[in-house]
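Design job #97: recover the sequence.
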């Protein structure tokens, strides 16, 4: 019974985190993109290949934020200025606090999996 429960839980996690298509949809905007973000101020753009492209959020030295898709995105952060990359649909809407919360959530799931 324990093995069945672990298997069902593993399949559930796979369904939650698997992306079912190769395409990726990202928010794109350069004006009025600052946090807190309002999705109504941005357009949504579909990129053809999620293995090459990522959604990106840019923190610019002037304190502004821009969102777009980026090929071969490399995360970078120097004193709060940089690039956040992600590979889920519309994932570049997140603020810094939400991104850290997602990391904590993910680590919690890993710990739960280790216990079972």
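Job complete. Output follows.
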């Amino acid at each position: 019974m324990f093995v069945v429960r672990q298997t069902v839980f593993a399949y559930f996690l796979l369904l939650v985190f698997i992306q079912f298509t190769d395409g990726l949809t990202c928010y794109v905007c350069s004006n009025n993109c600052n946090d807190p973000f309002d999705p109504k101020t941005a357009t949504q753009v579909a990129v053809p290949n999620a293995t090459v492209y990522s959604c990106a959020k840019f923190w610019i030295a002037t304190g502004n934020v821009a969102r777009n898709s980026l090929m071969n995105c490399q995360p970078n952060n120097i004193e709060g200025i940089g690039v956040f990359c992600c590979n889920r649909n519309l994932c570049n809407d997140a603020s810094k606090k939400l991104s850290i919360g997602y990391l904590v959530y993910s680590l919690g799931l890993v710990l739960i999996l280790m216990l079972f």
